Amino acid sequence: MAKKNVKTECSGMEWSQFLYLIERLKKANEYQFMLFIAIGGYCGLRVGDLLRLCWIDIVDQDCIEVVEGKTGKNRKVSINLSLKEIISHCYQNSKAGNKPVLTSNVLPTAPGMFFPDNILTVGCI
């Protein structure tokens, strides 16, 4: 937990690091987390909106349509070829059906246990 009255800093991820993370997750067979990171990164969707997606919303689609949980606005986001390939790969390697794409257990549960930090560390996976 963060200390009170202390500024924290964070920085964005370089695109090359993002692509490297996706590749590492693929090699680790972490399909659910790979999809979570990929759709979030390529489409800019919030966590709550990601967790409401079902396979039918993204497989063989040209765009993702959601009603944003935070604003209530309808949002339509194009799916580019790279993301389509990731979705297809994850779908083929998961126990699919018309279940939610992601579940809340994809999120870290303990403080400091953020998986991308661990997978990007040299020597992991």
Mean pLDDT equals 80
Query: Unreliable segments (pLDDT under 50, ≥5 consecutive)?
Result: 108-114, 119-125
The largest β sheet comes out as: 2 strands, antiparallel
**Beta-strand content estimate:** 5-15%
Secondary-structure element pattern, one letter each: HHHHEEHH
Q: How many H/I helical runs?
A: 6
Number of strands: 2
Give the helix level as a range of percent: 40-55%
Termini separation (Å)? 28 Å
Strand order of the largest sheet: 1-2
3D shape: globular
Radius of gyration over all CA atoms, rounded = 15 Å
Derived structural class = mainly alpha
Give a structural overview:
This protein has 125 residues and is mainly alpha-helical. It has a domain at 16-98. It is 42% helix and 8% strand. The protein has a two-stranded antiparallel ribbon. The two termini are 28 Å apart.
Considering the chains and any ligands shown, give keywords for the structure.
6 helices, mainly alpha, 125 residues, single chain, two-stranded antiparallel sheet
Short précis:
Helix content is 42%, strand content 8%.
List the helices and strands and how they pair.
Elements: H1 15-27, H2 31-43, H3 47-51, H4 55-58, E1 63-67, E2 74-78, H5 81-92, H6 115-120
Antiparallel strand pairs: 1-2
Helix pairs in contact: 1-2, 2-5
